[in-house]
């Protein structure tokens, strides 16, 4: 195997290269032997054809293949084989058995992955036409050799052809089996990853993020992300729930969340928690996204518009939201045990986002941003700076902007 190594051959072409390189060496040796056989038969033209064309073709194919010119090398060797069998049949007749080689060449047409289907079919047509032509017009060759020699060559050509066809079928069969095994393994791997994504996020992750998680095999162990965290609360939900039947409350929740969750997903966010009267979402994890701040604010504005539209349509009573967003580094990853795991965020920036959401009550607002989030918006939207705020559990004051 080391003999066939070449720095010009790409890893994905290595198998094809080794097989064809061995074939070119066999072809080179076989045509050198054929030169002496044709000399023995007295067929001077065929002997010189081997010496001047066949042997150089296979030598050149070997060198080109080693240089990474696989397609050119294969094409050269293939055309030599076709011409050689036609030439041998013309000079020595049908019973000589050279036509058997055309049978395996018909299968070899489909061995080169670089050949387009149209070219493969054209070459197959050429071989079939050559076979019919030789059968009809060259039953008897120009030269006559002993019947024993004809029979011997006919038998050896038939056996060699059967052997090569068997090897080709074996190659294709093994390749197909390996491809199916790889496909099955990849499918099982993808299914396992999908189950993992669904177990952690349920249906609250967009198809794009799910596909990226699967394709990149993202590890869900805890790591730091730069994210924007969004907390949303439905104002006066407790009062509404106490005043209505459970079925009415459930219908209200399904209607509102049925609008809000797709908006988060559409902006490449992930809903981490759904509470009775609110949600928690993250933008920028578990798939990093440098535009997380912009997307979180766009999602928040879209949610406000959506709830207002539902109220205008009479689908829900007039409803106000309270949304708080903060951006910064957090620790994100799996939390729980083997029986129950969920994706969670940890860090002061999560707490800041929750505290900012609570400020909406005091300022009678619906959308507040931290200065960290606002600083990442380009262009900056129209907003009211409501000053530095003291937040429970946070040592430093946090600047807050009001957007709605």
Q: Residue share in helices?
A: 55-70%
Name given to the CATH homologous superfamily of the largest domain? Nucleotide cyclase, GGDEF domain
- The CATH architecture category of the largest domain equals 2-Layer Sandwich
Give unreliable regions as ranges.
none
The number of helical elements comes to 12
Number of strands: 8
Shape: rod-shaped
* Classification by helices and strands: alpha+beta
Strand content: 15-25%
What value does the average pLDDT take? 87
Description:
This protein is an alpha+beta fold. It has helices at 14-41, 44-66, 70-92, 100-108, 117-137, 147-201, 207-215, 237-243, 246-266, 292-313, 348-363, 371-375, and strands at 223-234, 269-275, 278-283, 321-336, 341-346, 367-370, 384-389, 398-402. It folds into two domains: 2-181, no CATH class; 202-402, Nucleotide cyclase, GGDEF domain (Alpha-Beta Plaits, 2-Layer Sandwich), CATH 3.30.70. Strands 1, 2, 3, 4, 5, 6, 7 and 8 form an eight-stranded mixed beta sheet that branches. It starts with 13 loop residues before the first helix and ends with a strand.
Structural features:
404 residues, alpha+beta, 12 helices, Alpha-Beta Plaits
Task: Produce the secondary structure layout.
Blueprint: H1 14-41, H2 44-66, H3 70-92, H4 100-108, H5 117-137, H6 147-201, H7 207-215, E1 223-234, H8 237-243, H9 246-266, E2 269-275, E3 278-283, H10 292-313, E4 321-336, E5 341-346, H11 348-363, E6 367-370, H12 371-375, E7 384-389, E8 398-402
Parallel strand pairs: 4-6
Antiparallel strand pairs: 1-3, 1-4, 2-3, 4-5, 6-8, 7-8
Helix pairs in contact: 1-2, 2-3, 3-4, 3-5, 4-5, 4-6, 6-7, 9-10
């Amino acid at each position: 195997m080391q003999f066939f190594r070449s720095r010009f051959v790409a890893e994905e072409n290595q198998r094809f290269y080794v097989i064809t390189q061995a074939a070119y060496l066999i072809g080179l040796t076989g045509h050198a032997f054929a030169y002496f056989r044709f000399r023995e038969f007295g067929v001077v033209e065929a002997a010189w054809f081997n010496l001047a064309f066949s042997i150089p073709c296979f030598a050149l194919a070997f060198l080109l293949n080693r240089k990474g010119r696989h397609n050119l090398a294969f094409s050269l060797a293939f055309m030599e084989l076709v011409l050689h069998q036609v030439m041998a049949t013309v000079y020595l007749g049908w019973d000589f058995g050279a036509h058997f080689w055309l049978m395996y060449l018909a299968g070899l047409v489909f061995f080169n992955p670089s050949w387009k289907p149209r070219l493969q079919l054209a070459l197959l047509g050429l071989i079939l036409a050559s076979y019919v032509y030789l059968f009809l017009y060259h039953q008897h060759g120009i030269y006559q050799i002993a019947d024993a020699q004809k029979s011997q060559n006919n038998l050896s050509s038939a056996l060699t052809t059967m052997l090569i066809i068997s090897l080709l079928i074996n190659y294709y069969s093994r390749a197909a089996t390996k491809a199916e095994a790889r496909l099955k393994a990849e499918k099982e791997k993808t299914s396992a990853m999908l189950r993992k994504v669904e177990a952690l996020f349920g249906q609250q992750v967009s198809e794009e993020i799910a596909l990226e998680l699967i394709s990149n095999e993202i590890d869900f162990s805890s790591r730091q992300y730069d994210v924007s965290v969004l907390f949303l609360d439905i104002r006066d939900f407790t009062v509404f729930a106490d005043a209505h039947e459970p079925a009415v409350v459930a219908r209200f929740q399904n209607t509102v969340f049925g609008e809000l969750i797709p908006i988060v997903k559409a902006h490449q966010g992930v809903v981490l928690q759904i509470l009775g009267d609110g949600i928690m979402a993250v933008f920028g994890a578990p798939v990093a996204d440098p535009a997380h701040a912009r997307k979180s604010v766009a999602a928040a504005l879209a949610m406000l518009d959506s709830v207002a539209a539902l109220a205008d349509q009479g689908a829900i009573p007039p409803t106000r939201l309270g949304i708080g967003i903060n951006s910064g580094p957090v620790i994100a990853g799996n939390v729980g045990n083997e029986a129950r795991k969920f994706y969670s965020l940890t860090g002061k920036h999560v707490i800041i986002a929750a505290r900012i959401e609570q400020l909406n009550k005091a300022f009678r607002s619906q959308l507040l941003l931290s200065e960290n989030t606002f600083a990442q918006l380009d262009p900056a939207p129209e907003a009211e700076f409501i000053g530095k705020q003291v937040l429970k559990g946070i040592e430093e004051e946090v600047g807050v902007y009001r957007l709605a």
